[in-house]
Amino acid sequence: MARIELAPEVLDDFDRIFEHLAAQSSGATTAQIAAITHSLAVLEFSPLLGRSVAHGQRELVIGRNGHGYVARYRYVERMDTVFVLAVRSQREAGYR
């Protein structure tokens, strides 16, 4: 089982997502953040689940229809650790 480490910038990403959801008067703001963290936990068991992108990094798509999120991460096999580098909304990350 891989260990998951969040880069300090990911906490800023969560703050930005939370503020955006709160500004839209979404009653599910906390639930949405919990859903993202729950999806990241899947990487403990399947660290290569996300699609491969540049520089040895991977992307995990969370949710769908432009209302989801994309987590950028790197899996270091010799350390058996997933380093989550960023979390963005799908629209912010360029998905439609």
Q: What would the keywords be for this entry?
A:
96 residues; alpha+beta; YaeB-like fold; 30% helix; 29% strand
Written overview of the protein:
It is a single chain. It is elongated, with a radius of gyration of 13 Å. It has one domain (3-89): YaeB-like fold, CATH 3.30.2310. The protein contains two helices and five strands; from the N terminus they run E-H-H-E-E-E-E. It has 96 residues and is an alpha+beta fold. The protein has a five-stranded mixed beta sheet with strand order 1-5-4-3-2. Helix 1 (8-23) runs antiparallel to helix 2 (29-41).
Write the layout of secondary structure elements.
Layout: E1 3-6, H1 8-23, H2 29-41, E2 51-52, E3 58-62, E4 69-76, E5 81-89
Parallel strand pairs: 1-5
Antiparallel strand pairs: 2-3, 3-4, 4-5
Helix pairs in contact: 1-2
Number of domain units:
1
Named at the architecture level, the CATH assignment is: 2-Layer Sandwich
For this structure, the CATH topology is YaeB-like fold
Distance between the termini: 33 Å
Structure class: alpha+beta
Approximately what portion of the residues adopt beta-strand conformation?
25-35%
CATH class: Alpha Beta
Order of helices and strands: EHHEEEE
Which stretches are poorly predicted, pLDDT < 50 over at least 5 residues? none
Widest β-sheet, arrangement of strands: 1-5-4-3-2
Biggest sheet, open or closed, and with what strands and sense? 5 strands, mixed
Q: Fraction of residues in helices?
A: 25-40%
The count of helical stretches stands at 2
Q: What radius of gyration results from the CA coordinates?
A: 13 Å
CATH superfamily: RelE-like
The overall pLDDT average reads 88
The general outline is elongated
